[in-house]
Design a protein that fits this description.
The N and C termini lie far apart (90 Å). Helix 9 runs parallel beside helix 15. The longest helix is centred in the N-terminal third of the chain and has 37 residues. With 584 residues, the protein is α/β, with parallel strands linked by helices. Helix content is 46%, strand content 16%. GO terms for molecular function: magnesium ion binding; phosphopyruvate hydratase activity.
């Protein structure tokens, strides 16, 4: 009996000892992490405040003490954008309070340009290329970028973008080496295959005779036309860089409980900044380019540029009224226009025979509505001349069947600007190769109109040396390219200190509007007032304006320099690097 009791007593004592040791370890664990003090503090605070939601109060208190969320994984999938083209959507998952949660997503469209036109003017069927680019981007995200960024703090944008930039640079160099090897193999094959044919000497004199019969005039026109520069190669999969950088920035803003534009501002400006300025929206109101029904090809976009003093809603209402009035005027008998449609940019697409008809339409509609065209309202013309060159003739096909040499086009622009003074900007009036005509046009109209380069801006990767702009250019349309991180975009805008900057939105979600506001650009080109995707961007801009007005933080933008005076500044030597940014 006593033996059994002794055995039982010894066994219970061991269990008690183990339990006692466990309690000591737990107490030490909680004490080392300050749990008792924090619980006592929050209970005392909650007793005096007596909140209605006790557990919500406790949840908020302890959530502020939780570890910083870190990226656990990044996923991607292929979706369709507002134009029906394929795009890449990414989602960021973070470990938040010991749970994996999807925090944010972002969408970015394919490589620019989205219109399927090459800079040489040749139509490009890029559906296969787009599919390849998207599948490569998704593979990069799944196999490389997601593991590389696992454990990163999403608020550390610079570190994330550095990883993305270095990764893409490595892929770019690999792609460049493979292209060089292919060229070397092609050259070696050509040298071997060129040995047998010996009939080429008989063809050479025939060509010389023909050229002699044509005369010197034919030769001079061919020599005066510089060949189109080969387009900068774009690496398939580059979309992964931009969309991952963007979705990380959106994730950081969501975790910080701040709008994306505020977060972008904090990345750009170190000190806190309450007062913010909104970019002025540029509205495409008319399109008479190559895709229109009529003969006119030259006016790809007629863009309304309001003054800095007008609010976003006021500008949008003005654009809508102007489009309705133009429709009403077109329905009359004064204009012999083709069918009225809607362009890919969301503007009225009308077929005209001559540029004067389109500009007369805009002028008449503004007069009917008593709009201050020429003072508070100005016009910009996107000529998109790089897509109008007929290389077989060496001339621009400004209208179907009507070809003009680069010098003749200079005279045409001069006549239009003299006849329509509200035109204050010409975008891509020539190819970038027509250097002499850029310079001549700038000297002729430079005092009243500025020249802006879009496709003619010699775009190149951020890490390579910038190519010179065509002479006389006083503004450049920069874009949020697929190989550009958010940090690259902010830096690109910051480098443009002496000029009014603009941002042109392309395919993708409304994040581009927040990027424009946060980066402090002066103008935002969103396209026309048609289409759900574009109107979402306009609505987002109005939403930001209302937020800043309610907070009392909407500042009046200080006008750096009128766009019409930019060319004068360029000629005087002060210069300006850029005028516009876009995401495509």
């Amino acid at each position: 009996m006593s033996y059994k009791g002794f055995v039982s007593h010894s066994r219970v004592s061991k269990e008690d000892q183990d339990f006692y040791d466990l309690k000591n370890k737990a107490a030490e664990y909680y004490r080392s992490n300050g749990v008792p003090q924090k619980i006592e503090s929050v209970l005392n605070e909650m007793f005096w405040q007596k909140p209605d939601d006790i557990y919500g109060y406790l949840a908020n208190y302890f959530s502020r003490l939780s570890c910083t969320p870190v990226i656990s994984k990044i996923t991607g999938r292929q979706v369709f954008d507002g134009r029906g083209s394929t795009a890449v959507q990414t989602e960021v998952y973070c470990i938040i309070r010991n749970e994996e949660k999807m925090v944010c997503s972002a969408v970015m469209g394919g490589p620019w340009p989205c219109d399927g036109m090459a800079e040489s003017g040749e139509a490009v069927s890029n559906s296969d290329q787009q599919h390849l680019s998207n599948t490569t981007a998704l593979k990069w995200i799944r196999e490389h970028l997601s593991p590389m960024l696992q454990g990163f703090n999403p608020t550390d944008q610079n570190s994330v973008d550095k990883i993305l930039r270095e990764f893409f640079m490595a892929r770019y160099l690999e792609h460049k080496d493979s292209l060089n090897r292919e060229k070397e193999e092609e050259l070696s094959d050509e040298t071997v295959s060129e040995a047998p044919p010996l009939a080429t000497p008989t063809l050479a004199p025939a060509k010389d005779k023909k050229s002699g019969e044509k005369g010197k005039k034919g030769n001079s026109t061919e020599k005066l036309l510089p060949p189109a520069e080969p387009p900068e190669p774009r690496l398939p999969g580059a979309t992964a860089v931009a969309v991952v950088s963007l979705v990380v920035a959106k994730t950081a803003a969501g975790l910080l409980g701040a709008p994306l534009y505020r977060h972008i501002t904090s990345l750009r400006v170190q000190q806190a900044q309450n007062e913010m300025h909104l970019p002025v929206p540029m509205i495409t109101i008319l399109s008479c380019g190559k895709n229109s029904v009529g003969k006119l090809n030259l006016l790809e976009e007629v863009i309304l540029m309001p003054s800095f003093s007008q609010g976003v809603r006021e500008v949008i209402d003005m654009g809508l009224e102007l489009q309705c009035e133009m429709r009403r005027v077109l329905n009359g008998s004064a204009y012999k226009a083709g069918p009225i449609g809607v362009s890919d940019e969301g503007a009225l697409q009308v077929g005209f025979e001559h540029p004067e008809q389109a500009l007369d339409l805009v002028t008449e509609a503004c007069v009917n509505l008593a709009l201050p065209l020429g003072s508070d309202l100005r016009l910009a013309i996107n000529c998109a001349a790089h897509g109008l060159m007929d290389y077989s003739r060496g001339k621009y096909e400004v209208m179907s069947g009507c070809h003009k040499s680069p010098d003749e086009l200079v005279d045409m622009y001069e006549g239009l600007i003299n006849k329509y003074p509200p035109i204050k900007s010409l975008i891509d009036p020539f190819r970038k190769e027509d250097v002499d005509q850029w310079e001549r046009l700038a000297s002729v109209i430079g005092q009243t109109c500025c020249l802006i380069a879009d496709a003619a801006s010699n775009l190149c990767p951020r890490w390579s040396d910038a190519k010179p702009l065509p002479p006389g250019v006083t503004g450049v349309i920069n874009r949020h390219h697929n190989d550009m991180t958010v940090s690259d975009l902010i830096q690109s805008i910051a480098e443009q200190k002496d000029a009014e900057t603009m941002l042109a939105a392309g395919c993708g979600d409304t994040s581009i509007v927040d990027l424009a506001v946060g980066s402090g650009v002066s103008f935002l080109k969103l396209g026309g007032l048609r289409g759900g995707e574009r109107m979402d961007k306009y609505n987002r801009l109005m939403e930001i304006e209302e937020e800043l007005e309610q907070e009392g933080n909407l500042g009046a933008r200080e006008k750096k320099q009128p766009l019409s005076d930019l060319s004068e500044a360029f000629n005087s030597g002060s210069g300006c690097d850029s005028v516009t940014i876009s995401s495509k």
